Amino acid sequence: MGRRFSDRINVNIDFYCHDLECFGTILNLSGNGMLISSNDIIFPLKSIFKINIPLQKEEVEIGVKVTRLLKTNGYSDGMGVELINPPDKYMSFVTDLRRSQEFITKLNIIINCN
User: Fold this and answer.
1) Do 59 and 53 touch, CB atoms closer than 8 A?
2) 88-98 residue pLDDT tens
3) Where are the alpha helices (DSSP H) in the chain?
4) What percent of the chain has pLDDT over 90?
5) How far is CA 25 from the centre of its chain?
């Protein structure tokens, strides 16, 4: 597997695919992709679909393409997806998350050093 274009941010965000009544949880994300966990449905490799993610006060729809499938104990329960033209609102959300995570990391270092 090749190197990622950007570091992932660990999250726990619920999402849904309104076309299929499919629900799941985004476990980590970046400006390029996400790791999605779902017991409802796992799409085949190279599938393209849209997901809806609640971001603060609004919901954002993002097109995704399945690039990787994950299995736990022989059962498919996750998929890596590449984002297709993520909207600016999503990219701003990721930037804000990254800044918050960097601040928390620095705060933890300061607290641990004292």
Assistant:
1) yes
2) 999 998 888 88
3) 88-113
4) 20
5) 8
CA distance linking residue 77 with residue 92, whole number of Å = 28
pLDDT tops 90 at residue 8: no
Q: For residue 69, what are the β-bridge partners?
A: 79
Quickly state the pLDDT bin for 55 (edges 50, 70, 90): confident
Compute CA 105 distance to the chain's CA centroid, rounded to the nearest angstrom: 20
Amino acid at 7: D
Q: Which long-range contacts (CB under 8 A, 24 or more apart) does 65-69 make?
A: 67/33, 68/1, 69/42, 69/45
Distance CA 21, CA 16 (A): 7
Sign of CA dihedral 31, 33, 37, 38: positive
This prediction's pTM? 0.75
Specify the CATH class of 9-113 in words. Answer: mainly beta
